[in-house]
Write a structure and sequence with these properties.
By secondary structure, this protein is α+β, with helices and mostly antiparallel strands. It contains nine helices and four strands. β3 and β4 form a beta hairpin. α2 crosses α7, α5 packs antiparallel against α6 and α5 packs parallel to α7.
């Protein structure tokens, strides 16, 4: 049986099945990337809820795994060289799981790097910009008298959606007919923007027909539906 006792995080979140990959997460747009991925590839795992309401992400145990204090993070008892691998940053985790299982990342080198570039596009653009729209439109930022920050992030989100629209026109997925980690990285964020954040009208989402069709296809996948609700919120 795998021994994970050397990892402080297991003191707060004991592993009932230490032989399985351990996922520490919350069903946010970043968190569901990894739960969707795990559901898609069928890799057995054990999930642990990191409750922001209890500041779990700031605990010494969680910070021992991710010093940045963000979800998701994983602890794979069967990492490279058959040694445990702690890993944080959702994009890095997606790439690791794809390479570990040989799934959802093209084998051809050129297509592989083109897939990874779209994951970086999400990490550097879609996530930060859509998240700022959420803050200034739905959360505390909505009460700010100065609306210039909201306008800035709305305009940038529209631009990013335009990039997605141009690329997806005539394509089923970001890599043509191949559903990959590029799609997984973005589905939760676009869903959140028009759903939970309620910013669909704000960014004129109805104009982006190809993006809307792509989102609908993605959300229809059973593994995506499961992953969107893992772990269950408290």
């Amino acid at each position: 049986m795998s021994d994970l006792s050397a990892f402080l995080i297991t003191k707060r979140w004991p592993a009932k099945h230490p032989e399985l990959l351990q996922l520490y997460s919350l069903p946010t747009p970043n968190g569901v990337k990894v739960s969707i991925m795990l559901e898609e590839i069928g890799l057995p795992y054990e999930v642990h809820l990191v409750d922001f309401g209890k500041d779990d992400q700031k605990s010494p145990e969680f910070l021992s795994l991710n010093p940045n204090g963000k979800i998701p993070a994983i602890l794979d008892p069967n990492g490279p060289g058959s040694r445990p691998l702690p890993l944080f940053e959702s994009g890095a985790i997606l790439q690791y799981l794809a390479e570990k299982t040989g799934k959802l990342l093209p084998e051809d080198a050129a297509r592989r790097y083109r897939t990874i570039q779209w994951v970086h596009f999400q990490m550097g653009g879609i996530g930060p910009m859509f998240g700022q729209v959420g803050f200034f439109h739905k959360f505390a930022g909505k009460d700010y008298e100065d609306k210039r920050p909201l306008e800035r992030y709305v305009d940038e989100s529209k631009r990013l959606l335009g990039v997605m629209e141009t690329h997806l026109t005539g394509r089923q997925w970001f890599m043509d007919d191949d559903y990959t980690i590029a799609d997984i990285s973005m589905l939760g964020w676009v869903r959140n923007l028009v759903g939970f954040y309620g910013a669909g009208d704000l960014v004129a989402f109805s104009r982006f027909k190809s993006v809307g069709a792509w989102l609908e296809r993605g959300l229809a996948r059973p593994a995506v539906q499961r992953g969107l609700n893992i772990p269950k919120r408290p």
